[in-house]
Specification:
- Helix 1 packs parallel to helix 2.
- This protein is globular.
- It has 255 residues and is an alpha/beta fold.
- The two termini are 20 Å apart.
- The longest helix has 13 residues.
- Helix 5 links the parallel strand 8 and strand 9.
- A seven-stranded mixed beta sheet has the order 6-5-4-3-14-2-15, covered by helices on one side. Strands 7-8-9-10-12-11 form a six-stranded mixed beta sheet.
- The chain has seven helices and 15 strands.
């Protein structure tokens, strides 16, 4: 199926089971958003529709897993102003394009949007006296931008008795999630291949291209993302914004 970039706002819903999910976090709902690749040509109406729809949802947070910026911020001020109106908490980790365009200003720009920068940090969410850990790491190419992630030291700080969700732009970072028994990883980067059959090429560099998968205790969900890069269309790799609902049941289903 041929689809012009941003032509449709495709929302899908999934339930993801986490065995040790605290009762207070049953039905905790996350919008997983990734790969907007905002530049001067990104249609303003597409971003307005996205923000309106997200704000209409009864959710707990937004996980934005990178590649938001695809231009210097001075060229996309109006676009960013629109995104700043998301009313739910937005936790953001950098993608390779974010580092390429805004590395020195990234923390400042994310703060202006009202988002929470989760790069190389752990944040603990508390509900009803129970906890859920969010861990974020900067893009896998960080070292090329002079950023040290210190992954092992960061992951070693996780409370093993508390469930954890990793936000990481590239699926390949599942090697850390698996090693430290993270319950769920959320990633983007691949665009689901964007243009068939490019997905087969992506598989040479990433363990997963799209969808929900499991490695031992760790589950990973890779979204195809909302935007596009290089070409302003997709073919047999439709865009998506995913509403993930956490449940204690050890299964997942797609809706």
């Amino acid at each position: 199926m041929f689809e012009k970039a941003y032509a449709r706002l495709n929302f899908k819903s999934m339930r993801v089971g986490i065995k040790n999910l605290p009762t207070s976090f049953e039905n905790f709902t996350i919008v997983h958003l990734s790969d907007l690749h905002v530049n001067a040509q990104t249609p303003l109406h597409a971003l307005e529709s996205l923000v309106t729809k997200i704000n209409e949802l009864d959710i707990d947070m937004v996980a934005l897993t990178g590649d938001l910026f695809d231009a210097r911020t001075k060229y996309i001020k109006i676009h960013l102003e629109i995104l700043s109106h998301i009313k739910h908490p937005v936790y953001f980790v950098s993608g390779n394009h974010d580092l390429a365009y805004t590395r020195k200003q990234l923390a400042c720009e994310v703060s202006k949007l009202g988002f929470i920068l989760l790069d190389n940090r752990i944040v603990t969410l508390n509900l009803g006296g129970e906890a859920l850990q969010l861990i974020g790491i900067s893009d896998a190419f960080s070292r090329y931008f002079g950023i040290k992630r210190h992954e092992k030291e960061l992951f070693a700080q996780l409370d093993t008795k508390c469930p954890s969700i990793l936000l990481a732009h590239q699926p390949k970072d599942i090697r850390f999630a698996k090693q430290f028994s993270v319950d769920l990883q959320l990633s983007g980067h691949t665009h689901g291949g964007q243009i068939y059959p490019f997905g087969y090429l992506v598989r040479l560099f990433q363990p997963y291209v799209k969808g929900l998968h499991r490695q031992g205790k760790t589950q990973i969900f890779v979204t195809t993302g909302y935007g596009s890069w290089g070409f302003d269309f997709r073919f047999n790799a439709p865009s998506e914004v995913v509403i993930l609902t956490l449940t204690k049941d050890d299964h997942a289903d797609q809706g």
